Structure formats: C-alpha cells, structure tokens
Amino acid sequence: MPRVKSWDERGSASIEFIAAGLLLLVPLMYLVIALSTVQNAALALEGGSRHAVRVFVQASGEERAFARATTAVEFAAADAHLEQPVSTRVRCTPVPADCLRAGSSVTVTVSTRIPLPFIPDLFGLRRFAHIPVSASSTEVVSRFHA
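RESULT FIELD:
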C-alpha cells in the first residue's frame, strides 16, 4: 500500500488566530465606536429639531418662539452630551418676516460637526476629522393660533 504524505500539523495556530483577530477586530471596533458616536448625535439633533419646531409654532410671539426653540435644541444637545457647538436655523414660508402667521410653514434646521473618536492632534489631523450631522423638521402654524 502506498504511503500518503502527512503534513506537519504542529505550528502556531493560536498566534495566527490572534494576529488575524487583531487585524480584523481593532478596525471593526473603531468603526462601531465611530458609528455609535455619529448615531448619538444624529438622534439628538433630530429630536432637538422636532421639539424646537413644535415649541416654535406654539409660542405667543416671535421673540419668545426663537428663544424657546433655541432652548429646546440646547436641552437635546446637553442630554446627548454633545460638546460641539450646535447651530439652529429657522426658515418660514411663505412670508419670512411673519413666522407665526396662521398657515405658515416653519422649518427648523439643526447642525453640528462630530469629531471622530481617538484621532490624535498630530499634524492638525483633529481639525479635519469631523463628520457633519444635521436634521430638520417642518410644521405648519395652526389656523387657530392666537
């Protein structure tokens, strides 16, 4: 009977597993952390814009409406522990000068830039490692608004 050559199975499978695992696991974990950071900011901005437009259209005057909308966005950003500045923009149609006119559409847009986690400030990399995130919500002023 012919003899079959057997391969030497002794080796370093555990070292290969650890090396391959680290090469795959470290980037995957970084991706999960980065995506969860961006998702946290996106959900906070979406909730902030939604609440800001709701309190805006229910306010009694435009000055009070702008203040309440800004406060709603600030609360949402603080609740999500966002440390970056958040900008709030209010747009009214069809008459931009009269936002609280019955039947007007009010759109609140909230935006910020989220830095990627664990980026060193080597050669100014941190300045460029940001992801822009924004959300907007629209609501119509009630025809019964006083």
